[in-house]
Structure formats: C-alpha cells, structure tokens
# Entry
Amino acid sequence: MELPATAIVIAGASGDLAKRKLVPALDALFQQEKLGGAPLIVGTGRTAFTDEQFREHFSISAPFARRLFYHRHLKGLRQFIDTHGTFGRVVFFLSLPPSAYAATAQGIAAEGFGEKAVVIIEKPFGSDTASARTLNRNLASFFDESQIFRIDHYLAKEAVQNMLVFRFANSLFYPVWNSRHVESIQISALEREGVVERGAYFDKAGIIRDMVQNHLLQLLCLLTMEAPLTLRSDDVCCRKIDMLRAMRIDDCHRFQYAGYRSEHGVDPLSTTETYAELQLSINNFRWTGAPVFIRTGKAVHRRGTEIGVRFKTIPRLLFNEAGTIPPNQIVFKIQPAEGIILDIQSKVPGTDNTLSRSTMNFCYRDSFASAIPEAYQRLLYDVLRGDRTLFVNAQESETAWEVVEPVLDRGPVAMYEQGKLPESGLPVRWIDFDEYQGLCG
Ligand code: BG6
# Structure
C-alpha cells in the first residue's frame, strides 16, 4: 500500500515512552520501508535541544537518525515542517500526561494543520464517565473522530487479536460459546512488580481505572461479542459497545499491598486499590447466567495474563457417575507466553478406564517461526495506513467508564502481602492459572 508522505510529531519527545517504545518502533518501521517515502520525524517538548542532542537520546540506525529533528514547542511547527518538504499528513503522538491533551489539541489546531492532522493518544481517557465525555468533547471541537486514534495497547497483542480468529474462523467453538455451555469466564491479569516509578499517577487511578476499564473490558468484549458483519473497525466497535452496554458489575473487592503507602509519590494514607476482583454479568441472550470473574493486581507472585472459559460439567453418567470429572476449560494465554490450551479428559494408557486430565496446546512459539512484532510498531503502522480496528472510539471508552463507574473508589480496601495473591472474596473456584505456566513458555 502506497502511503502518503508523512511527518510524525512526537509531543513530549524527551519522555520515557519516546525513548523506550516510540522512536525504536519508528526506526524498525523505517527499516522495513513502512513509513512511506522520505518521512520526517519531529520531536517537540519544553526542553531546548539541538537536533544532534535530540538524536543522541536514542540508539537508532544512522539513516533513521538523519530523518529525526527537534522543534521546541508547537508554535511555529507548521512552518518548520513545511521547510522540510510537502507532507500529505501530519501524525501527532501525544506522549504527554492526559491533562495536557486538550491544550495540545488546541495548539495543533491553531497551527492550521486542518484535515492533515492525525492525533494519537494513550489511556487514561479521562478518570470517570464525566471526565471522559469532557475530554472527547474537547478533542471533537478541534478534530473529527476519524482523525483521532485512542490506543489500548492490549489490542495490539498478537494473542488478543488471535481471539477473534479462534472464535470466528473455527466452526468448532461457535455453537458452545454461550451460557448454555459455558459455566463461567475468568480473566486474570497479574503483575509481579509494584507501582515502581509511577506511584504519583497510580495513586490517583487505582487498578480498576488502570487495567479494568480499558484493557480487561476490551478482552472481555472480544471474547464474548457477537460476530461483526465485517472486520471493519466501525462494525467491530458496534459489537463491542453492545457488550459493554450489557455488562453489569455485581460484586467488587479491593485490596492494597502492604508497603504501597510508602512507595514514592503515594499518599501515606492512600486507600487506592492495587488489586481488585470483580464479578460481572452480561445481560444479553447469549451470556445471561454465565458469570464473569476478573482479578488483576500488582505485586503478586508472578506476571501473567490469562483468560479461562470453563464449560459446564458433564452429566453424572458413564465415566462420571461419581461426579468427579472436572469441566473442560479453554485457557487463552495472552502473556508472557502466548498460546491456547484446551483441557480435556483422556484414558490413562494400560488402565481400565482410569481418566486423567490432559491438555491440547496451541503454542505460538512452536507454530510460528517469525518473531511477534512489538505492539507499538503494529499500532503506529495501523495509524499510518488508516486501519482503526485496534483503536478505541469515543463512545466505546465512555461506555466502558459507565460499566466501572459504580465501583470506582468504593468500599473497603483489604491489605495483602507482597508476592502473594489476596484471598478471594468472590463465589468462584478460580481456575488454577499457575498450572499452565509451564505450557508454551
Ligand atoms: C498499563 C498500565 O496500561 O498496562 C500499567 O498503566 C500496567 O499499570 C500495564 O503495568 C500492563 O501492560 P502489559 O503489556 O505489561 O501487560
């Protein structure tokens, strides 16, 4: 696909994201000739740098470094870009605190980029429904929705994208993907690290805003939504919004790890949750009656994101007269290793019908030789080619806020020891996701 000549502006270019993710991803795309002919990359920010000083921040290829420039502030940027060539499109990545989004959008509009401008922002998109609406209204006063790309980096994870393929390219699963056959859905997203350097941000957010409202509700939508009419982003978005509108949180427990209050940037009396577990229902024809359990948190025993679909148990007949056969389960391993595991029962060889649990594994590592591309590479490339499928639109983000709003900052916060899972307060037999760690690793 022929891309128009593009200038890419990183606002907040001296920050960590630009250094760790954005500039390396752009360099990789440049080397794969996916940035279009003679791209221009401009960093902006409050710090004064010469082009040379700016380039020294990054370890990048020499040809790409020659495409990299620095221009302090937004003011005068249009003229600066015009002196470097004619660009059909100017992409702005706002690598800035969300409080700066509205003013920056105004600054970009004031430079007169008009319809050429494309703006990429990262979560958090607001901190509740009202602030999300305000942000969206502000952005909409400068740009059309088609010019705005909201990143949820979980959507760029290869194993997440594969969930749709698994569901809609295999006839096997379609008939059983409903509450008549599924007993429960369980999503677990754990991190070994605490808040590290991000205490000041995190303390105002908490894990429900940080992980559930965005990443985990997105996963749940992809897992449960009806088949979209086409794979076009507006069709996919409609289906996701239908799901979000059907979701209700029935129970929520919040926890905080011991020692969190002495982390840098955290209020010593903080009641922010660093771990949460939620029970949701999906009130539509397909899913009513199958509860969804979500748990997510920091500073627990390991890092890993898994989704489990537990099926109903078989009748107490034949091999299961004693009712001891565990249910079938499908586990989607999203990270750190990617794979899909199906738990089944099989006969132990050489015995008279002694059964044992076995797994059928699809592991990315074994099935595909090529390395999985880094999420930002994929996302930036999608912006350049105008593919919005992996991005979140305004209505979707507001509807997701409506789902979590009733539990934000509500209820007691119990303590848990670092390196351990808090004891679950939900009426659920959690799938032992730790058991799957050895698979696809
Ligand atoms: C971010 C959150 O969106 O996602 C972080 O702000 C969290 O708190 C991170 O650690 C997790 O992302 P990943 O890709 O490492 O699972």
In short: The chain has a mean pLDDT of 94. The radius of gyration is 24 Å.
